[in-house]
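#lab-general

N.A. 3:47 PM
ok so I finally got the sequence cleaned up, no stray characters, all 482 residues accounted for. can someone with queue access submit it? mine expired

B.Y. 3:52 PM
send it over

N.A. 3:53 PM
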Amino acid sequence: MQKSTLDRIQIIVGRGNFFDSPEDRISYSYDGTPMITQLPEAVVFPQNNEQISELLYLANKEKISIVPRGAGTGLSGGSIPVENSIIVVMTKWNNILEIDTANLTALVEPGLVTAVLQKEVEKLGLFYPPDPGSMNVCTIGGNVAENAGGLRGLKYGVTKNYVLGMEMILPTGELIKIGGKNVKDVAGYNLKDVVIGSEGTLGIFTKILLKLIPLPPLSKTISVNFKKIIDSGNSVADIISSRITPSMIEFLDNTTMNCVEDYTKIGLDRNAEAMLLIEVDGRGSSVDEDAETIISILKKNNAEQIKISATATEALTLKTARRSAFSALARRKPTTILEDATVPRSELPVMIEKVRTAASNFNIAIGNFGHAGDGNLHPTCLTDERDSAEIIRAHKAFDFIFNEAIKLGGTITGEHGTGLAKKGFLENAVGKEGIDFMKKIKIAVDPNNVLNPGKILTMAPRCEGALPSKREQIPEFHSHLH
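B.Y. 4:20 PM
back already:
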């Protein structure tokens, strides 16, 4: 990038908000995705809408790339820089602008940490349900960009179910406002759902309007172990078909349980093949009735050590341990590849076995956990990127896992996004026509491909500016897929 361009960027945001030393840039050269890094040309912290617009006008004029970023917790490479790019960091935009108790909404800035919002609205007896595993770090803007899920997705849905509107700046620099506080609004195209999950490729959020709901007054948390992993999958399928909707059904296999126990030391059974963590919530006697029905289903499926948490603190300890699964697994080996495959819930027992087959056939260690009630599993490979042969086997294993998920009517990602890491799988999931439609939207909104290029889609002619993931650099990785 030319020095004159960098000088112009520094003038736009101010000297105190511009960083281009190697030490400053390296912290923004990666996110939560393993084995993909790229240094940006500079890192900036814009202070207002006008600065973001000016940066985008300059990017279109000079044909440079802008990569928006929140906390950098993403797991698909969505916020990793590309060549000739600057990182626009939004973490200082972290205010709650309004909590409207009459309309049950919250207007927030995109850099607000998810857990901070939850704590503030719960003080008012309200509830913001989406709870990604990284909720104590991740930001609302990133959640919306990735359409993040979480433990409570089974009953309450994911981020998109709680977004009423947003203010955003388009790749060409114009400000647009979408949605509002109306419960009903079908005026024109549903632009809101186009930009949710667009991974920073269609605009930069500056304000986000969220829906809140009343805080459930009662909950019960059940932990249960299984000698056979297939029984845990069958239990989930039976609970779903029983017409009960728990707020949470979380799954951990033996590898994950042992890593979590090493990390948290809360007394998990190291010999069980799997465990489920189930929560029901609501009002009145229905909570007890649902818990009793679930326990009877668990017993029918050979469950052991069924335990209802005695206190809210005990329940929180279990849920916190579950949220630590990725961190706990990451302690086992130098490189941790956390993936995200989702199938219809009735196919969960089959998908659990497919993951075990992949680990066995390709001789790699996989810990498996996830949001079982959503059919959303997180097979996690414990490996070492210095062992190139093992990395190739790991990539082939995930190739197999994603293919099997699609065969079962599933998808390549339920909540992590496509980013750099999975775009090679996207056509197999959505078809060539789906890819072409997405490209038409991207070209219409971002004709010069300046905003987060190379993520989700490879666009011509500026595709050379996008950094391919290391998976894409290994020919064998996509061999079974295509």
